[in-house]
């Protein structure tokens, strides 16, 4: 049984369970590109590397994964292997994932990029089934793109993941609504997957998140957010 997504009239997907939006009203693809992909220094940071790993908390509608994959595909200097490793307790249906891409169109949308992401969403939808709790691995782009989806509670599955992250996307609904995704123990488990230089991005600059990250060895910056949000977060892991 997949998680229900409720669509508001303006095309924004909502979670009934968490009573929050899956992404900002600026659009999921705009948020993915600006806050997460660019916020982690991509595509530049994967250039010159053989493999690059992104760790995400909250796979949701897959927009961050699809945007990262599209940015990788469009980059002539991309790394050879892209590994995207994400945690999700409540997978949504492939129908909602594909709908989320189409619903993300805004006045800023580059229609050529949207067309490419729609094609990638169809590929993801074609393998999206039987997501029981545990680890699921999917291969795309002739094996150059690997998605590891850990289905389960973040506190249980994140510490068990076998991945060293080059970039981290923290995307787990609002910290005030869903503190488990942002607790110090969750951030600690994230930090255990980081190395000096790992970049991290999020849309939230909640004090507890910034302070927790600093305490764990991240250099944290508040950056100009994607309107209507004033701020977004960028961080770099120094050392524990
Ligand atoms: C804002 S959405 C993520 C959006 C997503 N990154 C995207 O690109 O579409 C947050 C996700 O975190 C998941 N989540 C919330 N609490 C969780 C928990 N304790 N453990 C694992 N996943 C959780 C939700 O089910 C939801 O799909």
Automatic annotation (TrEMBL):
Using the record's annotation, list all stretches that form the MnmC-like methyltransferase domain. 118-236
Q: Which InterPro entries does UniProt cross-reference here?
A: MnmC-like_methylTransf (IPR008471), SAM-dependent_MTases_sf (IPR029063), tRNA_MNMC2 (IPR047785)
Gene3D superfamilies attached to this UniProt entry: Vaccinia Virus protein VP39
NCBIfam families from the UniProt entry: tRNA_MNMC2
Question: What is the protein name stated in its UniProt record?
Answer: tRNA 5-methylaminomethyl-2-thiouridine biosynthesis bifunctional protein MnmC
The species this protein belongs to is Rhodoferax lithotrophicus
